[in-house]
Structure formats: C-alpha cells, structure tokens
Design goal:
The chain is an alpha/beta fold. It is built from ten helices and 20 strands. Strand 9, helix 4 and strand 10 form a beta-alpha-beta unit.
C-alpha cells in the first residue's frame, strides 16, 4: 500500500507539532515537524486541520438502532456508527441478563472481535458490565444480578475476549475475586455498588483498576461517609466518566478532573446513538430517546446517545479543557488503562488510528488502522 500523508497540527506524545504524519499498511511510519503551541492550533494564522489520536471508548452498549445484547450482526453495525464519530477502537459492553442471554451476545461478538469489519471501529473485546453487581444498585441494568465465579468468567471469556469486568466489591466473594481476575489477566472496574469507602479502598488494593461511570450507580460522597465516590476521588488513578452533561453535572466533572489523574471519557451509548427520537432496546429494557437523553419509563437515565466526537467538544468547548488534555481523556488514558501501548497516541509504530478535525472540532476525516472511514450519513 502506498504511504499516506496528512498535514496539519499533529498531537504527538510530546505535544503538538506543525508538520506531517505518514502511515502505511495500517501503522504510523513517520511524524515530523516543529513544535506548536495550543494557541497556534486554535488561533494561528494558518487554518490547518487538527490531527488527534482516534478515540477509544471502553463502554459501548449500542448505536445505529442496534444493541450489543442482540448478538447476530449487531456488532458490525454498532462499530461502523461509532467509527463515523471518530471512535477507532471500543469495548462492546453487555447488560446484566440471564447467563444464556449473555452467552448469546458474546457469540455474536466473536467474529467481530477476531476480524475488524470494513468501515468499522476495532472491537478490542468485551466489557462485561454485570451480572456481578449489587441488585440494590442496578441503575438501568435488568434485575438479573448473580454471584460471580472465576470459572464462569473464564467460560464466558472462551466465547469472546473479556477485557474489562465491572463488579460490586462488597458482595460475598467479590473482593477476593478481584485479585484472582487480575492474576488471570482481566481488568476490573468497581461499579453498580452500594459499597463503602473502605470497600473501594480494599478493592483498589486487590488490583481493581478503576470505576465504572463515576458518580452513577454508586454510593455518593458525604463528609462523614465518603462512599465509593470518595474512594475514587481519594485514591483512583483511572475512572470512566460520561461527559454528556446529563449523567454528571459539569461541576462534578471538574471535581473528578482535579482528583483523578487519568480520568477518561466513555459514552455508555445505547442503540439510540445516531438515531432519531423514539423507542429502542437496551438489553431486556425498552428505553426512550428524547430531549437528548435515554430513559426508562420511570425516568431513570439508561445509557446515553453520546458519541466520542461530542464528548471531545464538551470537554473543550463547555468545560474549558485544552485540546491536548481533552484528547488524552478520550483516547490515551483509556489505552493506557487497557495496557495498549500502540493505540491512543500518534507515534511511529502505533496503529494508524486518528481523527482530523477543523478548529470547531468537527470531524473532517477518520482513519482506523490505516483505513479512511466514509463519514457520510454519520447520524
């Protein structure tokens, strides 16, 4: 394949340069230029495009009208929708459900995890969000929480690769399981939990890496009972957050940004992402998209319609982050959390996963593993 060149303000691991990025056969081969400041990128006389690492989303339930739990051909459709919004790799995320339904969903992901469909984001593997959660803190999860065992998780992993598992550490056996899962190579997040601050600290000490959609579906911060949120703010290096400005108030996001060094963004997107208002599936639930959100009939937020390009714009245009910092929070930190040193950064040898944006942070081009994605009808 002929080498491809992209000129612009390129965000390298050392900061922005004004120069060129070259990629060939799916990998970045050259990044060259001279240093540029954030001011030049945003306000300089040369209206050059901005080139950032492709977005990485560790929490994707659906999109384009399809839900991960459907199995069958849902995964390629979901991955294509998110690629058209700049997500170059993702974790397909399950819902709490009877075990046979989870197995069905995983069987539908097997081929997509093995081979990236044309025009789609890379599905790195699976985020198992439940069923090993507290039934008293389901959020929008169906009521099928169950006890966890390492053997059961290994059996599920044999169907499709599990990269991330959310569990509630306060449930019997789960704290000990955290260490066993880490030894077996799985990453663990704390979520859907009624646990205390002490439960959170103990889980982190056992190897839990972060927190699932920080603030949502966990015990909140009180000055005498700091809860799971307090454990995250005091001790976590990594945590997910949903920056749609519905799930978490902008002020709370700012608190987390000051407290958690590698806070990273996820969409928690549902089948409603990229679709008009109406009813959609979320596991066994029927949810309604309206007024920019997705809710159960009782009004409970049930995932989102967020895409990662909008997450970036929210961080920069509404929360005031610099582009370089925001880019790390929609890409690099998630890659580091998953142990991926060849994604989430624009450097020779890394995958050619990148997004090209104008100064309004609107997508102009998306490249996944060297493939230019057709952005038409992005939804």
């Amino acid at each position: 394949m002929t080498a491809q060149h992209i000129d612009g303000f390129v965000l390298t691991p050392g900061g922005f340069i004004r120069g060129v990025l070259e990629h060939q056969d799916g990998r970045i081969t050259r990044v060259d230029g001279h240093a540029a400041t954030e001011y030049e990128v945003c306000h300089g006389a040369q209206d050059l495009p901005i080139v950032l690492p492709g977005f990485i989303d560790t929490h994707v339930h659906g999109g384009a009208g399809r839900d991960t739990m459907e199995g069958d051909d849902a995964a390629p459709r979901i991955a294509r929708l998110h690629a058209r919004h700049g997500t170059t790799s993702l974790l397909a995320t399950t819902m709490t459900a009877p075990l046979d339904e989870i197995r069905h969903a995983l069987r539908g992901l097997t081929d997509t995890c093995r081979t990236r469909p044309a025009g789609a984001a890379r599905v790195l593997g699976v985020h198992l969000e439940g069923p090993y959660i507290n039934p008293g803190k389901l959020g929008a999860q169906p009521d099928f929480a169950r006890a966890a065992t390492l053997d059961e998780i290994r059996d599920l992993h044999a169907i499709a690769p599990l990269h991330l598992i959310t569990l509630a550490p306060e449930l019997p056996g789960n704290l000990e399981l955290v260490g066993q899962l880490r030894e077996a190579g799985f990453q663990v997040q704390i979520g859907h939990t009624l646990g205390t601050y002490e439960d959170g600290v103990a889980a982190l000490a056992r190897g839990a890496g972060g927190f699932t959609h920080l603030f949502n579906a966990m015990t909140g911060l009180h000055h005498r009972e700091p809860g799971m949120v307090g454990a995250a703010l005091a001790h976590a290096r990594y945590a997910e957050i949903i920056p749609d400005l519905l799930h978490v108030h902008a002020g709370a996001i700012r608190v987390a940004l000051r407290s958690i060094p590698c806070l990273f963004c996820v969409t928690d997107s549902t089948a409603a992402a990229g679709m008009p208002d109406g009813e959609y599936s979320l596991g066994r639930h029927r949810v309604t998209k309206c007024l920019g959100g997705v809710r159960l009939p009782d009004g409970t937020l049930a995932g989102s319609t967020l895409t990662m390009d909008q997450a970036l714009r929210n961080l920069v245009l509404k929360l005031g982050l610099e582009i370089e910092d925001a880019s790390r929070r929609v890409s690099t930190h998630a890659a580091d959390f998953l142990g991926l040193d060849d994604r989430g950064r624009l450097a020779p040898g890394a995958w050619a996963d990148l997004v090209v944006l104008d100064r309004g942070l609107q997508l102009q081009r998306v490249v996944v593993e060297g493939e230019a994605i057709d952005l038409a009808n992005a939804g």
